[in-house]
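Researcher: Re-running this chain for the archive, since the previous output was lost when a drive failed. Same request as before.
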Amino acid sequence: MASRIRLEDRECPLSTTVQHVGEWWTLLIMHDAFDGYTRFDQFQQSLGISTSMLTTRLKALVADGLLERQPYQTNPVRHEYVLTERGRSLRPVIVALAAWGNQELAPQDRAMILVDAATGEEAEPVVVDARTGKRLDDSDSYVFTAGPAASGAMRARYDELDHRRRAEHSERESVRGGSGRPW
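Model: Regenerated structure tokens:
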């Protein structure tokens, strides 16, 4: 599959992540792997995916280090696809995507929900900062910025965004009378 990543985005973790897991079948295969499927025929039956597409996606997932191909039978040799540590680390992302998909649906319209395995109680997934426990869905409180390995172009992008945020903040403050308070 040809790379869709733009040259200027090669250092962006979002762009490189989407290159690995942004394909529709990939997320569905990984979801099935989290549900315990490991064998080619299980994935194929669950997803209704063509043999050639499933073969291509599984090879890519193995190459990306998300799944590991291991023999489970010797005569004839048959393989299963087992989650790697890197693959398991993708689970919170898929949980968050499913929660996002459910958030606009009435509870009775949700086809799949996340529950506590011990209690059966529905979970309410959110993404939080591990250090503070604060939710990360507030774009004013948590912003992206250039990291230590950022190129000049990446630094320029985030310097411009920071400048724009500061200008907008100043403008809001002047409308409020400069008190810095929202009232």
